[in-house]
Amino acid sequence: MITSQEFRNSVAGQLASAASQVPALTAFVGLDGFVDEILHVVDKRYDANRYDRVPTIAAYAQRLAAAAGKSTNVELVNVMTKLGGNGPIMANALARFGIGVTYVGSLGWPAMHPVFEPFAARADVTTICEPGLTDALEFEDGKLMVGKHYTLKQVSWENITARYGREKFATKFNTSNLVAFVNWTMLPYMSDIWASIQSELLPDVAGARRRMFFDLADPEKRTPADIARALDLIGKFQSKFDVVLGLNEKEAYEIAKVLGLNSAPQEWEGLAALSVEIQKRTAVETLVVHPVAYALAVSDGKADVVIGPVCKKPKITTGAGDHFNSGFCLGKLLGLDNAASVLCGVSTSGHYVRTAESPTVSDLTALMTNWPQG
User: What pTM, to 2 d.p., does this model score?
Assistant: First the structure.
């Protein structure tokens, strides 16, 4: 596990030296979109403006359990309303770095929802249907994402080709430095979309290998057969792309279970070893796993584990994983190795949870050289 300030200073130097390359990079990202309400659960209210929040998921669970056979009142306080969805959050963070981003997803129909307008000012954005809605209940130890997903069944290959255009899609798919398709779990036709892309577009991909990123996004509610099919489809893109599969810790254990591996929670050494086995079985070039306190990347059977800047009192946690993904991809696009790219990832999420804002490249180098404590 890498923790030294010397390492962080070295990566900050590499990143600063490569920063001039960022504006020439391009990314094609999709296909979801949500309007997120970030919410606190009230524990004790003192007056119209002052309250204590329920601090932990365990405390909230106890309150709900105590209401069984009776009833209870739960007050939610809106902290902010923001763009949501794995795709828009990741793409917005990439655009904040200065990468040229094209985004296709469920951002409003026929007009874009206003919450996405700042994102659209940074990127080339096309919407194909109404967004999903998420109530994100945030606690000090995690978050509960309560989603309304009925509009996402409109994210289909037919709708993409009709409202964005097959040729435009093919051009971006064939030329972007990074292609990223995320939030598989919540998009019921994502596997079919991937199958259509592999049938219609993948055979024509030529030239230098580029990077492709996937994030399943908490697949627990999907069947093992669905998950296995998704992993098989992801692996097939490796024939033309250098594929990265991103998982959080919970997702890693869920994938391990589907693959017949040990899915019991483990300390970091055990998770690193498990990740090596997952990478072998999924046939992707790189597997990334990001728990809260650290993150790791596996390629060629080797795991690089990097400590992150843990924040005890985060301003926001919804979207932290998507920011990690954007930072990791930035590092890989700039030619950094896995360990350095993981540091870019944890630094990106570390800045975001402290400020509720996506960092610039200079923000990353500043955080690396002035590592926060708590």
Answer: 0.91
